[in-house]
Amino acid sequence: xxxxxxxRSVLILVHGxxxxxxxxxxxxxxxxxxxxxSEYEVLVWSYPAGLNKQSSMTPMLSxxxxxxxxxxxxxxxxxxxVPRTVENIVLVGHSMGGLxxxxxxxxxxxxxxxxxxSRVTEVVLLGTPSAGLERARWFSLLHSQVANMATNSEFIxxxxxxxxEQIERRLLNPEDKTVSFRLTTIAxxxxxxxxxxxxxxxxPNAQHAVVPGDHRSMTKPQREEELLVRLLKDIAVRPKWxxxxxxxxxxxxxxxREFLMQVRAAEELNDREALRGVATRLATRxxxxxxxxxALGLACL
Length: 301
What we know:
Layout: E1 9-14, H1 27-32, E2 40-45, H2 53-57, H3 67-80, E3 88-94, H4 96-111, E4 120-126, H5 144-149, H6 154-171, E5 182-188, H7 196-199, E6 208-211, H8 227-237, H9 243-249, H10 254-268, H11 272-283, H12 290-300
Parallel strand pairs: 1-2, 1-3, 3-4, 4-5, 5-6
Helix pairs in contact: 3-4, 4-6, 10-11, 10-12, 11-12
């Protein structure tokens, strides 16, 4: 990433294991050429990932960095290569790159750093094995980054435990201003490498999305009109997350509470017509009201 940043917003693409600039195909160009993203610098960040021949030949001089170390590198990049004039930072990580981003954000939360709290507005995880990879256990002795991604690894277990305690708890507290970014987890509908239980499973349904493609092709759209390009554009241009949005997400705002009361009353009375009426009214709302839809779905079941 050598670009001189002059714009107010930055979107940074972070590749995964054994990846690089080629991970993204034409995606960076599609995003850069879109008029709605004219305020954005679209950057591709690369780091040592995959089999490092030099580290095996000269272990005293070079070694493969752990995911935790790469996360610190990303934080250092944000500290010193992204000017303070940048107001919005969108982080998009593919596969292991999503673990790097999570590690970076978690380190800041645990350390109580507020350097990028208001600047990192969106985090997007693409085909990221957030719950680990079972098959990585078979090859964990071959590479430290593979070992980190194993389902039973200390890294994955610690990441999930601390993410729940430090990130999700704060995100779901509308009054907590120490964590304020939106999270979107995206799976490839034909991804046979990272199962949905690992890419989407650790996170709430409201943060899930699925796009065409397998683990590799999902990051390489062939046309500007493809779903991933449109999704990333919508994520980048939507307004910053407000306290009202967070209250809406957890069902604590007035509108959500009213709908939840209607759902619960209809459920207790086993009134299917009332539940249909709630669904009809919900469909006309601009707000997503995910907790209400979840309660409605459970009531219908």
